[in-house]
Amino acid sequence: MMLKLSLWFLFVVACVQAKKRDSRIIKGKSAQDGTLPYMASVQVTGQGHICGGAILDSKWILTSGHCIARVMPNTDKLKVVVGTISLKAGGQEFNVSKATVHPDFDKSKLINDIALLQVSKPMEFGDKVQAIALPEKDTETGANVMVSGWGLTDNKQNAYPDKLQVLNRTALSIENCKEVLGDMPNEKRLCTVPQRKGTGICIGDAGNPLVEGKAIVGVASFVLFDCGSKYPDGYASVFAYKDWIKKNMS
């Protein structure tokens, strides 16, 4: 019980600190141009990149609830950049015409941490801009998954890398995740563990897509302890929210 309470406390602290430290992938590799055409950078005018996202079709981006909730009601300042692995150059830029955060999103516990953004006009699909599929089934324990995003590449950096970073992770069952994190995980969350020591996402790594094969299976939500720790990272399970996503895109 003490372990569960301690982990929960640190989770809450991490949520509070997320406003100060933004998206980052620790010890990932730079993506090759055109290899992740579904990737999106969610940005705020005057601030730049604030979180990641994934293209679901020509007008919709999937991202995290806590990333968008902290901007609301000023969603007119949101924009989306797609079609580039660089934060400094290239790509297509779009204004956001509609932002939908899950109605049951809980910012203190990051429950139902998922959101949709509708861009103001259709994206032009091509080699560097493509939609990613929703999953047909839940992710199994031991599955090889990949997360991608922009952000600090280690704890000592104070600026985002220009190039998109990618990192492989291993999916963990909810049962195994609960053994470590107590009651934090539920059937609508997906956990991953590192494949290499000292790697992982970090505080505020909001919205970055977790991909298995050709489908997006998770949306980055939370971490515990330091960046790149041995403990599981938490994601909103896309399979669990598939019906909600489809309903709100229609």
From TrEMBL:
<keyword id="KW-0964">Secreted</keyword>
<keyword id="KW-1015">Disulfide bond</keyword>
<dbReference type="GO" id="GO:0004252">
    <property type="term" value="F:serine-type endopeptidase activity"/>
</dbReference>
<keyword id="KW-0720">Serine protease</keyword>
<keyword id="KW-0378">Hydrolase</keyword>
<keyword id="KW-0865">Zymogen</keyword>
<protein>
    <recommendedName>
        <fullName>Peptidase S1 domain-containing protein</fullName>
    </recommendedName>
</protein>
<dbReference type="InterPro" id="IPR043504">
    <property type="entry name" value="Peptidase_S1_PA_chymotrypsin"/>
</dbReference>
<dbReference type="InterPro" id="IPR050430">
    <property type="entry name" value="Peptidase_S1"/>
</dbReference>
<dbReference type="InterPro" id="IPR009003">
    <property type="entry name" value="Peptidase_S1_PA"/>
</dbReference>
<keyword id="KW-0732">Signal</keyword>
<feature type="signal peptide">
    <location>
        <begin position="1"/>
        <end position="18"/>
    </location>
</feature>
<dbReference type="GO" id="GO:0006508">
    <property type="term" value="P:proteolysis"/>
</dbReference>
<dbReference type="InterPro" id="IPR001254">
    <property type="entry name" value="Trypsin_dom"/>
</dbReference>
<comment type="similarity">
    <text>Belongs to the peptidase S1 family.</text>
</comment>
<feature type="domain" description="Peptidase S1">
    <location>
        <begin position="25"/>
        <end position="250"/>
    </location>
</feature>
<dbReference type="InterPro" id="IPR001314">
    <property type="entry name" value="Peptidase_S1A"/>
</dbReference>
<dbReference type="Pfam" id="PF00089">
    <property type="entry name" value="Trypsin"/>
</dbReference>
<dbReference type="GO" id="GO:0005576">
    <property type="term" value="C:extracellular region"/>
</dbReference>
<keyword id="KW-0645">Protease</keyword>
